[in-house]
Design brief:
Length: about 350
């Protein structure tokens, strides 16, 4: 291993056994720079934190956005990875409900103040002082990661730990609005069947909803039906055909980019909801008049509360909802990034930790 410090991290060397705060991680020195294995110092474990030995970590497009500093939030040197599964190794003095050896998962958020109005009402994900793993901390492409105990979630034994990492980002992103807005009698639609959409279909179907999936031409129709979609339609349909396919009580937009949302808004049922989950969508190009006649609404969200996270894990265990993933060793990170960028992942990529001890 190269022991020369080229990134500003101190110290970069193999630690002695007593140096519990050191870990190996894939570190990028700047936007888009190669992620190379280095030793990094995590600093003292905070009283309200737990430390987790990483076993598996999902790869998400948000990791790539942060790596390239597309949102202006990234602090370099940078460690990506925010869909983490592993075992608790250390517990801070004031951390609660977790013990060493327990298998947990963690995601985008890594801390909340616990005293603001949002936190006191159970909406810790909206805490104005929340900590985000990839902004204020170090991510899961590492041998160890840390989080506030409130954002580490025990994984039910009946779920396959190697495959569930995407639940802690993609899963909770779609489960939260389904939990809040879906009813068993609803006709629903999922626009875009990728990392988010394939989980949305499974959750909606288990909730008892009728599900229509709008997919691009390269979608695996048989697989999407197997996820639970009763109908699979091309996303490139004209506005009239999308409206005819409805009306829909809930439409989850699980893709970003240049999608035109007006035809989907026009396909809402009375009191229906168009809920946008994909990042970097283009500005809405329609008037609220389109919604007034049927009392419909447009909304958006990201992640969910700790309570919803626990509900999602219990629901997934009960109904055997598991992300469809491809496994690669963490040393194959460049290959994994290339597959994700090329749109070849079906439907999420999980990296298995393989650091030398």
């Amino acid at each position: 291993m190269n022991d020369t410090d080229t990134t500003g991290l101190q110290p970069i060397r193999r630690p002695e056994p007593r140096e519990l705060d050191m870990t190996q991680a894939y570190v990028a020195a700047g936007p888009g720079a190669p992620m190379n294995v280095q030793w990094i110092d995590l600093g003292p474990l905070a009283a309200d934190q737990v430390e987790v030995a990483v076993e598996h970590c999902g790869l998400c497009r948000s990791d790539l956005a942060m790596w390239h500093n597309e949102w202006g939030l990234t602090r370099f040197p940078f460690v990506a990875g925010h869909e983490v599964v592993g075992r608790v190794t250390r517990v801070g003095a004031s951390a609660r409900g977790l013990v060493p050896g327990q298998r947990v998962g963690l995601g985008w958020n890594s801390g909340s103040c616990l005293c603001c109005n949002a936190c006191r009402s159970g909406q810790l994900q909206y805490c104005p002082d929340r900590q985000r793993l990839l902004v204020q901390g170090r991510g899961g492409f590492a041998a160890k990661v840390r989080t506030q105990w409130t954002w580490a979630f025990p994984i039910p034994d009946t779920l396959p730990a190697a495959d569930v990492a995407p639940l802690f980002c993609a899963g909770i992103t779609v489960f939260s609005p389904i939990r809040r807005y879906a009813q068993p009698v609803h006709r629903t639609a999922v626009v875009g069947v990728g990392g988010l959409g394939h989980l949305a279909i499974q959750f909606l179907q288990r909730f008892g909803c009728a599900v229509t999936a709008f997919v691009d031409a390269e979608g695996d129709l048989a697989q999407i039906h197997e996820f639970g979609a009763q109908r699979v339609l091309p996303s490139g349909l004209d506005a009239g055909s999308i409206r005819t396919a409805g009306p829909f009580d809930l439409i989850l937009v699980c893709t970003g980019g240049e999608i035109d949302l007006e035809p989907y808004a026009a396909a809402l049922a009375p009191a229906g909801r168009l809920h946008v989950l994909g990042a970097n969508t283009r500005p809405l190009g329609f008037s609220a008049d389109l919604l007034m006649d049927v009392g419909a609404a447009v909304g958006s969200s990201a992640i969910g509360s700790p309570g919803e996270m626990l509900e999602m894990l219990a629901f997934s265990a009960r109904h055997r909802i598991v992300p469809m993933v491809e496994h690669l060793p963490m040393r194959a990170l460049p290959e994994a990034i290339a597959r994700l960028q090329a749109g070849k992942a079906r439907y999420r990529i999980v990296l298995d930790a393989d650091f030398e001890s």
